[in-house]
Specification:
Structural class: alpha/beta
Largest sheet: 9 strands, mixed
Radius of gyration: 29 Å
CATH architecture of the largest domain: 3-Layer(aba) Sandwich
Number of domains: 2
Helix content: 25-40%
Shape: elongated
Distance between the termini: 100 Å
Mean pLDDT: 84
Strand order of the largest sheet: 6-5-4-7-8-9-10-11-12
Strand content: 15-25%
Low-confidence stretches: 29-33
Number of strands: 12
Length: about 270
């Protein structure tokens, strides 16, 4: 009986200690927040996480966006700096994927930015140049930086200002819409090429027309893909043909390699083999 009372008393004291510890932590946190609110902003730390080798956004670009919206932010009391609107502002930039802004007790405003990752460059019939990223959204062309990516040209009628904001990674679309809007097919082919170091190095240009054509870097041939349907099957077929065929007969033996027919590859021999 006495032992049970001791155990009960001990549990109560442990609970009291925990409550006091939590209350003390919250109190200290409150004092720290108040101290931080009165502290002027003395430093801005910008961390840009380039999700690929492409650097569309630089430190000065972020600083200019910050100062343009908020005039000069250093020297302002931390309590006057709201982080949520800053995050929203940065996220409107077409090259930025996500932004986190937070304040520290020593007066530092930290800005962490994740940039978008383009997987293909597109040049439409009007001569407009833009990119499509890994998530299926368009990005504008930048005069400050040109990414080395597969270039899609040809009968591409879609315009950037009309198609910007459309999610081309959607899978809930029917085949007729996919065929009518080249961007759905371009995204799927670009994403496939981007998953392989071999294809990223081999395919430098794609010509979009009734028959989609790949222009490889190695060899003097053209690969006829047909439409954008069954990309995985066609590209796997081409890879096997490269490995088991061209590696033995030579990469310049054929002028065209046609993949658009089911379960077969139709080749046209080059008139002159270099």
């Amino acid at each position: 009986m006495f032992k049970n009372r001791q155990q009960k008393f001990k549990r109560i004291w442990v609970l009291v200690i925990w409550v006091l510890a939590i209350a003390g932590t919250l109190l200290l946190w409150g004092f720290a927040n108040k101290a931080m609110d009165k502290q002027p902003c003395t430093d801005i730390k910008i961390n840009i996480n380039h999700t690929s080798e492409h650097e569309f956004i630089q430190y000065d670009d972020v600083l200019n966006m910050l100062n343009e919206k908020n005039k000069k932010i250093t020297g302002k009391p931390m309590e006057t700096i709201s982080t949520a609107p800053l995050e929203q502002m940065f996220n409107t930039n077409p090259y930025i994927k996500n932004t986190e802004v937070f304040k520290t007790i020593n007066g530092t405003l930290s800005i962490n930015i994740d940039t978008k990752r383009p997987i293909a460059r597109i040049i439409n019939v009007l001569g407009e140049s833009f990119y499509i990223d890994e998530n299926g959204f368009l990005m504008p062309w930048s005069s400050n930086y040109t990414a080395r990516l597969p270039v899609f040209t040809g009968q591409i009628f879609e315009r950037y200002d009309v198609c910007y904001g459309i999610d081309y990674s959607r899978t809930d679309i029917n085949d007729s819409l996919l065929i009518k809007n080249n961007m759905y097919g371009i995204y799927r082919l670009a994403k496939y090429l981007n998953t392989s170091e071999f294809w990223k190095a081999q395919v430098e240009q794609v010509y979009v027309a009734k028959n989609v054509e790949l222009v490889p870097l190695a060899g003097n041939h053209i690969v006829v893909l047909g439409d954008f349907q069954d990309i995985d099957e066609k590209m796997n077929k081409l890879f096997v043909f490269y490995k088991q065929g061209l590696n033995y007969v030579g990469w310049n033996k054929y002028e065209t390699i046609n993949l658009k027919y089911k379960n077969q590859i139709v080749c046209t021999k080059a008139t002159t083999i270099q």
